[in-house]
Write a structure and sequence with these properties.
Number of helices: 6
Order of helices and strands: EHEEEHEEHEHEHEEH
Structural class: alpha/beta
Distance between the termini: 27 Å
Strand order of the largest sheet: 5-8-7-6-9
Number of domains: 1
Mean pLDDT: 95
CATH class: Alpha Beta
Number of strands: 10
CATH superfamily: Nucleoside phosphorylase domain
Oligomer: single chain
CATH architecture: 3-Layer(aba) Sandwich
Largest sheet: 5 strands, mixed, barrel
Radius of gyration: 17 Å
């Protein structure tokens, strides 16, 4: 780093100051939504003890079951960035985010599983982390671990770009059409910020998402209670856990 590196700029509040005694493992599964937190804790056989983590919680999976933490929920870019900053400040080095997203591609359907490679930002948090120097891309090695974990179960996954927005009720027809025509696959609320933050801090971060709804036809098709989505959700958590265990 040099004197012009944005990571050298003095700040008034450092990450982790509100959780100074938090002991975080190097590997973390970040569950975006509350149901994903519960499912990850059950499938990972995490300890019952919850530790406070900003506006979420932190649970431990001991060494004999893989040796990683489960953190969350982390809904929306500002909240997710705050939580991940704290995780990194307390020792996290590899983070897999697990959640769901809406398809904006006619080729991607409810119940599919997506491994985002990069993201287009329409959220505000990543602008504070020098996105020109640290563009929002998934870590390639961690992404490969997710691909291998999915392949071991013979569960197909799609790879591609997602659109990150702060405003789920402003996913207009024009924007959905534009991003779909550009080849983007889905819309969600956290990843461009998380990818940018991770590269800024020099840690590995990748994500895996289950497709919960479809927007490509410009008519909303929810699938949150469909068996295919519920199955994909469980597969998403299993793949994330297996990928973390491989490190």
């Amino acid at each position: 780093m040099n004197d012009k590196d944005p990571r050298n700029e003095p700040v008034l509040i450092r990450p982790g100051w509100f959780n100074r005694r938090l002991d975080v493992r190097e590997n973390v599964l970040l569950a975006i939504l509350p149901p994903y937190v519960t499912l990850a804790r059950v499938m990972g056989k995490a300890s019952w003890r919850k530790r406070r983590l900003d506006w979420g919680g932190l649970w431990d999976v001991p060494e004999r079951r893989g040796g990683f933490n489960i953190a969350g929920p982390a809904i929306g870019a500002p909240n997710a960035v705050t939580i991940v900053e704290t995780l990194i400040a307390n020792g996290a080095k590899r983070i897999i985010a697990a959640g769901c997203c809406g398809s904006i591609s006619p080729e991607v359907k409810i119940g599919d599983i997506l491994l985002p490679t990069d993201a287009v930002s329409e959220e505000g948090a990543s602008a504070h982390y020098a996105p020109d120097l640290f563009p929002p891309k998934a870590d390639e090695k961690l992404l490969e671990s997710l691909k291998n974990a999915a392949a071991a179960h013979e569960w197909p996954c799609r790879l591609g770009t997602v659109w990150t927005t702060d405003a789920p009720y402003r996913e207009t027809c024009d924007k959905v059409k534009m991003y779909s025509e550009r080849g983007l696959l889905a819309v969600e609320m956290e990843l461009s910020a998380l990818f940018t933050l991770a590269r800024f801090r020099g840690v590995q971060l990748a994500a895996i998402l289950a497709i919960s709804d479809e927007l490509a036809t410009l008519k909303w098709k929810p699938g949150f209670l469909k068996p295919s989505f519920l199955s994909a959700t469980r597969k998403t958590i299993r793949i994330a856990i297996d990928a973390l265990k491989s490190h």
